[in-house]
Write a structure and sequence with these properties.
about 350 residues, Inosine-uridine Nucleoside N-ribohydrolase, Chain A, binds calcium ion, 9-stranded mixed sheet, 9 strands, alpha/beta, single chain
Length: about 350
């Protein structure tokens, strides 16, 4: 259930945000926390989080961090979309939302299957309270269309930390009983910006998993045709091998804490692709998706340099390339703050903060 903050809390938050705005050298995408002068309520980003949670564990960190930010009044969570059709993904997402007292948050599913696999989202769904099942969750496309149709102009922020298939299907959706507008027109009218983890822009020549797993032509279509600005963090931004590993503080949480349970299960039952041996200790791990959330909510601050004035293109092998051009609609992040310091000081505290609920 969403909580409404009392008026004085908004007032304090507005004062806090004004102070931060002048105190920080914010660049690039940092209009995320503007105070709306036409209302007493600060215009925090209203986020739809679109995730391939279940494969890697940083999606759990990202959704957890999103809730921590929402607890602090820095964003609202409009919905969470699951971009694969594993039934346990939807159930794990609902368990995380419920852990923060937001069990009524709509969760959309990718319609296919469903398939089933015992991994950490299954474990979270077994261990923590939740009431949503895959069968009763709405499809991502109709849920996207409903949310966008009902939203004020340019009021929604879409954060994608997995394959982009839900966004692709939204873009391709025709007018229907939900809205007389096409999906592409809804995006053009209602979305403020996209923050997407995907591609490679610094160390190019290598496929990146989110775009690769979207399937032939899908990421290319989404990125090249998106009518709203996109900020991308590519493969090195968040990669533990590039200095961004963190999260060992999760080992110190109580055993029944959701993060210790989820991360613990993942490293006790590591997926084959990870090449890891089972371990009862949570190691430092990559934070790609958590960075996407951080930047979407509080901006790049002094953590990242934004490369803008360009667009992302896809070569014949669907590898991403950067094309510099004035007023290009895309931007990507490069490291500015020391990656390890950023990971330990900015991200890790989000992963061990308890819900307010
Ligand atoms: Ca992911």
């Amino acid at each position: 259930m969403k909580k409404s903050l009392p008026y004085f809390t908004y007032l304090l938050l507005a004062l806090f945000l004004c102070t931060c705005d002048s105190a920080q050298n914010i660049e690039g995408a940092d209009d995320a926390t503007d105070v709306d002068s036409t209302s007493e309520k600060p215009a925090v980003p209203r986020i739809i989080f679109d995730t391939d949670i279940g494969g890697d564990i940083d999606d759990l960190g990202a959704l957890y961090a999103l809730h921590v930010y929402a607890d602090s009044g820095l964003c609202e969570i409009a919905a969470v979309m699951s971009s694969w059709s594993m039934e346990h993904h939807v159930e794990g997402i609902d368990a995380i939302n419920t852990y923060f007292g937001r069990g009524d948050t709509p969760v959309g599913k990718y319609v296919d299957g469903p398939y089933s696999k015992e991994e950490y989202t299954w474990w979270l769904g077994e261990k923590f309270p939740r009431d949503l099942k895959y069968a009763s969750a709405p499809g991502a496309t109709p849920l996207y269309r409903e949310l966008l149709a009902a939203a004020a102009d340019t009021s929604l922020t879409i954060v994608v930390t997995g394959r982009v298939n839900n966004v692709y299907e939204l873009m391709e959706s025709p007018p229907d009983s939900i809205s007389p507008m096409s999906g592409m027109d809804l995006i053009a009218a209602k979305v403020k910006a996209f923050y997407i983890m995907g591609g490679n822009y610094v160390r190019t020549g290598k496929a990146e998993a989110n775009f690769k797993w979207s399937g032939p032509g899908v990421a290319k279509y989404v990125i090249e045709n998106c009518p709203r600005p996109i900020t991308l963090n590519g493969g090195i931004i968040g990669n533990r091998e590039d200095g961004y590993g963190t999260g060992t503080a999760i080992n110190d949480l109580p055993e029944d804490h959701l993060m210790r349970s989820g991360y613990g299960y993942f490293f006790q039952h590591p997926p084959e692709w990870s090449g890891l041996a089972p371990s009862d200790t949570i190691p430092e791990w990559s934070i790609w998706d958590i960075i996407t959330v951080q930047v979407a909510v509080t901006g790049t601050e002094d953590y990242f340099t934004v490369v803008d004035e360009g667009s992302v293109a896809f070569d014949d092998a669907e590898l991403t390339t950067w094309v510099a051009e004035p007023d290009g609609p895309h931007r990507f992040l490069k490291p500015k703050m020391n990656p390890k310091r950023y990971a330990d000081e900015v991200i890790q505290p989000l992963l061990v903060r308890n819900p307010k609920y």
